[in-house]
């Protein structure tokens, strides 16, 4: 129960620092529904059963550049194995802000590819007209083979958003690479998902 109490405390602290639900979900690597449940539970108001989710703590990797480098090498290996099947090369590694950026930058270096950064817009706002953007301060994706990098896939909504945006820019998303896949799907929007760890809930 201590882990749940720790998550509640972190969620409340992040909310008090001005983060919205989606940002708290990114920080804690849980779904938005879980964040709402944690914040509701903190107030002891109308507590509902916990959502089916798994919290992922990647602090021991994220705080060490050496560990991030080693993990990025493992992700590069998985990406290259996937792309060899279609005889495709990597042109650009797209890091999803903020948690995917450290891994993406190291992977781009190792793969000899350009680095692009995807910033989400309308973070936590439910409107179809809010779209993310590829930063102009990094590599171009137009017409290029892209590898999308993030730390965790929970529902897949962010990956879908990035894939759609890349396709609209005439880019070719080839694989989504993550540390942890909580969705458990093999593909998302017809793009393969490759992860170091895949979590499958047995219900």
Residue-averaged pLDDT: 87
Alpha-beta content class:
alpha/beta
Shape: globular
How many domains, as an integer? 2
Question: Order of strands across the biggest sheet?
Answer: 3-2-1-4-5-7-6
Beta-strand residue fraction: 15-25%
Radius of gyration: 17 Å
Q: What is the second-level CATH architecture of the largest domain?
A: 3-Layer(aba) Sandwich
Total of DSSP H or I helical runs spanning 4+ residues: 7
The main β sheet shows up as: 7 strands, mixed
Distance between the termini: 21 Å
Order of helices and strands: HHHHHEHEEEHEEE
| Main CATH class of the largest domain | Alpha Beta
CATH topology of the largest domain: Rossmann fold
Which stretches are poorly predicted, pLDDT < 50 over at least 5 residues? 123-128
Number of strands: 7
What level of helicity do the residues show?
Answer: 40-55%
Protein name: Transcriptional regulator GfcR
GO molecular function, one term: DNA binding
GO biological process, one term: UMP biosynthetic process
Domain Phosphoribosyltransferase: 79-183
Task: Explain how this protein is built.
The chain has 203 residues and is of the alpha/beta class. It has 2 domains: 2-43; 59-198, Rossmann fold. The chain is built from 7 helices and 7 strands, in the order H-H-H-H-H-E-H-E-E-E-H-E-E-E. It has a 7-stranded mixed β-sheet, with helices on both faces. Helix 6 links the parallel strand 1 (92-96) and strand 2 (114-119). The protein is globular, with a radius of gyration of 17 Å. The chain starts with a helix and ends in a 5-residue tail after the last strand. The relative contact order is 0.13. Residues 123-128 have low confidence and may be disordered.
């Amino acid at each position: 129960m201590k882990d749940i109490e720790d998550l509640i405390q972190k969620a409340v602290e992040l909310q008090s620092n001005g983060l919205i639900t989606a940002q708290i979900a990114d920080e804690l690597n849980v779904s938005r529904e879980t964040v709402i449940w944690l914040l509701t539970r903190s107030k002891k108001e109308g507590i509902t059963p916990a959502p089916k989710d798994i919290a992922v703590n990647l602090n021991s990797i994220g705080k060490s550049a050496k560990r991030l480098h080693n993990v990025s090498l493992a992700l590069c290996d998985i990406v290259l194995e996937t792309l060899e099947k279609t005889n495709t090369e990597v042109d650009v590694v797209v890091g999803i802000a903020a948690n995917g950026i450290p891994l993406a930058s190291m992977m781009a270096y190792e793969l000899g590819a350009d680095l692009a950064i995807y910033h989400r817009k309308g973070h936590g706002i439910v409107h179809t007209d809010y779209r993310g953007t590829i930063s102009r301060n990094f590599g171009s994706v137009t017409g290029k083979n892209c590898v999308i990098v993030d730390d965790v896939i929970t529902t897949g909504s962010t990956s879908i958003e990035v894939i759609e945006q890349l396709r609209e820019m005439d880019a070719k998303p080839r694989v989504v690479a993550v540390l942890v896949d909580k969705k458990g799907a093999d593909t998302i929007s017809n793009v393969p998902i490759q992860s170091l760890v895949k979590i499958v809930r047995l219900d």
